[in-house]
Amino acid sequence: MTINIGDRLPEGTLAEFIEVELAGCSLGPNTFAVSGLTKGKTIAIFGLPGAYTPTCSAQHVPGYLKHAADLKAKGVDEIWCIAVNDAFVMGAWGRDQKATGTIRMMADGNAAFCKALGLDADFSKHGMGTRSQRYSMLVQDGVVKQLNVEQGGKFEVSSAEALLAQLG
């Protein structure tokens, strides 16, 4: 079953590589409960097949970086990028994309969260195993308010520009 607008995000955890030690967060990979991170917040989430992949690196992440201030001006508290990679890879990719401090690079290493969303995809024919479909969503207090899932390897409806247009 795929998540829909109006649904609450499923229980699950995501990992994030923390660059600077903070109270309650050690340097390196830290695991967080999604329900705790989304409570009382508006979050723009975009999911993609993998770190360092062509469309993801050249268009998806750069678009959200370019429009981060616009999204915040529309009431978005945080921007998350979720991919089926480990927290070390997501941290390195975030540094490479200059996303640190702007986009939270969230690792779904075993694809458990994207499977719970019903947004997993089989990329075995490309040697990549189970990955995430490309999508974007707006989540308020853990509830999906907008959802845009790409079809057939396209990059049309999940861009930062498309999500911004939905915010009015």
Automatic annotation (TrEMBL):
Domain Thioredoxin stretches: 3-168
Organism: Actimicrobium antarcticum
Pfam families found in the cross-reference section: Redoxin
Sequence similarity: Belongs to the peroxiredoxin family. Prx5 subfamily.
Record PANTHER family: PEROXIREDOXIN, PEROXIREDOXIN-5, MITOCHONDRIAL
Gene3D superfamilies: Glutaredoxin
Cross-referenced InterPro entries: PRX5-like, Redoxin, Thioredoxin-like_sf, Thioredoxin_domain
E.C. numbers: 1.11.1.27
Catalysed reactions, semicolon-separated: a hydroperoxide + 2 glutathione = an alcohol + glutathione disulfide + H2O
Keywords: Antioxidant, Oxidoreductase, Peroxidase, Redox-active center
Role summary: Thiol-specific peroxidase that catalyzes the reduction of hydrogen peroxide and organic hydroperoxides to water and alcohols, respectively. Plays a role in cell protection against oxidative stress by detoxifying peroxides.
Keyword Oxidoreductase recorded: yes
Record-given protein name: Glutathione-dependent peroxiredoxin
